[in-house]
Design goal:
By secondary structure, the protein is mostly beta strands. The chain is built from 1 helix and 9 strands; from the N terminus they run αβββββββββ.
């Protein structure tokens, strides 16, 4: 009986996401050189919210955020060179203090590495 309870408990915990709440600093190489971005993630069950600040496009709100196990996804609405853009992020928590993210800009993909605590 205890094993069944423990198995059910562990399975239910897996339905929730990894603990990524807090501040993260991300870097990437883009078409015009090095870029940086900070993320402030908030997690409520499988819902991911928060905001992000970029050296190129300023502050954005995290929309449509989901976290399932080690996988995350969200959308940002940004303005770059007077153009409104939707950037879709997908990622995987690869360790306690690292997330690897792919950002689909509609014109290409940018690979980000985020580290906890910045």
């Amino acid at each position: 009986m205890q094993r069944l309870f423990l198995s059910l408990l562990l399975a239910s915990l897996g339905a929730f996401g990894a603990d990524i709440a807090g501040n993260w600093k991300a870097t990437a190489e883009g078409p015009i050189g090095s870029m940086s971005r900070t993320f402030s993630f908030k997690v409520d069950g499988t819902k991911l919210t928060g905001e992000t600040v970029s050296s190129m496009v300023g502050k954005s709100t995290i929309e449509e955020g989901k976290i399932e196990g080690d996988n995350i996804s969200f959308v940002l609405q940004v303005k770059f060179q007077d153009n409104d853009m939707t950037v879709s992020y997908t990622g995987k928590v690869t360790g306690k203090d690292e997330i690897r993210l792919s950002a689909d800009t509609g014109q290409g993909t940018i690979e980000w590495v985020a580290k906890r605590g910045s």
